[in-house]
Amino acid sequence: MPKFDVSKADLERLVGKEFSVEEWEDLFLYAKCELDDVWEEDGRIYFKADSKDTNRPDLWSAEGIARQIRWALGFQKGLPEYGVEDSGVTVYVDEKLKDIRPYGLYAIVEGLSLDEEALRQMINLQEKVALTFGRRRREVAIGVFDFDKIKPPIYYRAAEKTERFVPLGFEEEMTLEEIIEKHEKGREHGHLIRDKPYYPLLVDSEGKVLSMPPIINSEITGRVTPETRNVFIDVTGWDLNKVMLALNVVVTALAERGGKIRSVKVVYPDFEIRTPDLTPKEFEVGLDYIKRLTGLELSDGEIRDLLGRMMYSVELVDGKARLRYPAFRDDIMHARDVLEDVLIAYGYNEMEPEEPELAVQGRGDKFIEFEDAVRELMVGYGLQEVMTFNLTNRESQYRKMLLEPGEDRFSHPPAELVEIENPISPKWSALRVWLIPSLLDFLSQNTHEEYPQRIFEVGKATLIDESRETKTVSESKVAVALAHPRVTFTEAKEILESVMHHLGFTYELEGIDHPSFIPGRAGKIVVEGKPIGIIGEIHPAVLENWGIEMPVAAFEMFLRPLYRAPYL
C-alpha cells in the first residue's frame, strides 16, 4: 500500500483548521489512511500516511487527504467543482507510437504559488501514482513542466534512438539510447521501451524536448521550482481511461493549491479529445440496500447527508439514491463501494460492536496452518514470497514452456487446462495447472531489479477431475525459482532437501527428459513411490520466451502428499 510523508502544517493550511496529533489519528481514517509515524524536523511536525486503498490515487497526497477531510467534517458538501477553461494549446500524437506507447493526455494549471512543501507533494503524487496505479510506469507515467519555457503547439512523436537532449539532473546532451543505458531512470524503466523501433519524445514547436516518456524529463523544461507559476502536465500510457484518471488526479490536486485548470486539445490520427475531462460520473444505489447492510437506523435524509460528506451529489428518487461523484475517482464499481463511503462518513468508531449469537465453535483449518508453516519455512531460506494470479492462458502454460497441449509430463502440467468459456481477455482465459510459469512471468517483469532473485509461491493449481461434481479439483502446490548468474540444479536441490527434512519425508529424484528444462538437469520428485513434483534448470529457450537473461533453477511439488499434522 502507498506510504508518503505529509507536513502537519501544510495539511492544516489546506483543511483550514488546526488539530492535535491525536485528532489527526482519527481524521486520517476519513481518507482511508492510517497515521503510521510522527516526527519533528526543523521545528515542523510530519506524518507518515499509510494509504489502505490502492484504488484511490486521489488520496495519495496532502491535497487529496485535506480535501476529503474538509468534506467529511462538513466544511464543504456535495460534488467538488473545478472550472476548466480552454488554453488554446494543441498536442499532436504520432501514429508511429501506436505499438510503442500510444496515448498521451495533457493539461495546463496556471497561477500556482508553490512552496517547498507543495513541490514535495507534487513530486510525491507523481511518483506514487506512476509506481502503484501505473504499475511502475508501465501503465501510467507522469511529467510536469514549466509551461512558460514551452512554445506550443506540442508534438508527442516517435523519435530515432540517436536523437539527443539534456536529461533532468545532467548537464550534457545524451542520445536516447545512452539515456536508456546510463541514466538512473533509464536503467530503472528502460525495459518498458528498450526493444521498440522508436522511442517516445515530447517536443515543442521549437524542437525543445520536454520529456522522453516514460523515462525522464528534460533539464530545460522539466525542472519545476518555487518560481514556477504555470505548469504543463503530461500523462502517457496504454489505457486511455487510466491515463485520463491519472491526469484528473494531478490537475485537481494542483487546483487545491489555487491553480486554474486549462484544457488542451489532443489530436490523434483518427480522433481528437480535449483534456482533462472532469465530467462527474454517475451511479445509482437502493436506499434499503444501504440501510440493511449497514445495520444502522438511518433515515433517507441522513443517508443523503452522509454521502454529501463523501463528495457525492445526491438525488433521492423512488427509494434510490442517484449519485454523481468526482472524475478523479474510479473505484465505484458496486453498491458496496457506496456503502463503504456511508460507513466512513458515519464513523467506524461510532458504531457499537455486537457479539454474534452463534451456537457453533470455529477453529483454523489444519491444512491452511500447514501451508502457512511451509511459507515460514521458505522465508527462513531467504526466499521472497510472491502471490501471482490463478488465471493465466494457454500460451504461458504451454508454448512459452516449450510444451504442446495434451502432453502429460508427470502432471507438470496435466494434459489439459481448465479454460474459461467467455474470457474478458485472452490473457486471463484459463486456470493454471502449474506454478513455475507464473514465477517466470514474475521474473520477466523484474529483470531491471538486482540479482540474485530468489522467490517462492504457495498457491493453487486447478486440475481436471471427471470424478467430481465440478469436474475439477484445486490442489495446493509450492514452487521455488532462483535466478542469478551462477545458479545451478544443486542450489535448488539443497532447498528441496532441507524442506523434505523439516517435513519429515525422504524422497528420490529420477532423471527425466522435460522440454521446459535443460536435458540432463531435470528430475522427478518421488515420495513413497509416487511422483509429486519436478526440479531442474530452466531451458535457455524458455528463458528467451519470457525475456529473462539470467539462468533460473526451479522446483515445484504438490503439498497435500506432504501434509502430516504432527509436523506443524
From TrEMBL:
Keywords: Aminoacyl-tRNA synthetase, ATP-binding, Cytoplasm, Ligase, Magnesium, Metal-binding, Nucleotide-binding, Protein biosynthesis
GO terms for MF: ATP binding; magnesium ion binding; phenylalanine-tRNA ligase activity; RNA binding
InterPro entries linked: aa-tRNA-synth_II/BPL/LPL (IPR045864), B3/B4_tRNA-bd (IPR005146), DNA-bd_dom_put_sf (IPR009061), Phe-tRNA-ligase_IIc_bsu (IPR045060), Phe-tRNA-synth_IIc_bsu_arc_euk (IPR004531), Phe-tRNA_synthase-like_B3/B4 (IPR020825), Phe_tRNA_ligase_beta2_arc (IPR022918), PheRS_beta_core (IPR041616)
Residues holding Mg(2+): D331, D337, E340, D341
SUPFAM superfamilies per record: Class II aaRS and biotin synthetases, PheT/TilS domain, Putative DNA-binding domain
Chief site of localization: cytoplasm
GO biological process, one term: phenylalanyl-tRNA aminoacylation
Stored Pfam families: B3_4 (PF03483), B5 (PF03484), tRNA_synthFbeta (PF17759)
CDD domains on file: PheRS_beta_core (cd00769)
GO cellular component, one term: phenylalanine-tRNA ligase complex
Annotated ranges, domain B5: 278-353
E.C. designation(s): 6.1.1.20
Catalytic reaction list: tRNA(Phe) + L-phenylalanine + ATP = L-phenylalanyl-tRNA(Phe) + AMP + diphosphate + H(+)
Cofactor requirement: Mg(2+)
The keyword Cytoplasm is annotated on this UniProt entry: yes
Gene3D superfamilies named among the record's database cross-references: 3.30.56.10, Bira Bifunctional Protein, Domain 2, Phenylalanyl-trna Synthetase, Chain B, domain 3
Localisation: Cytoplasm
NCBIfam families named among the record's database cross-references: pheT_arch (TIGR00471)
Recorded family membership: Belongs to the phenylalanyl-tRNA synthetase beta subunit family. Type 2 subfamily.
Assembly notes: Tetramer of two alpha and two beta subunits.
HAMAP family for this protein: Phe_tRNA_synth_beta2
Name of the featured protein: Phenylalanine--tRNA ligase beta subunit
Gene source species: Thermococcus aciditolerans
Record lineage: Archaea, Methanobacteriati, Methanobacteriota, Thermococci, Thermococcales
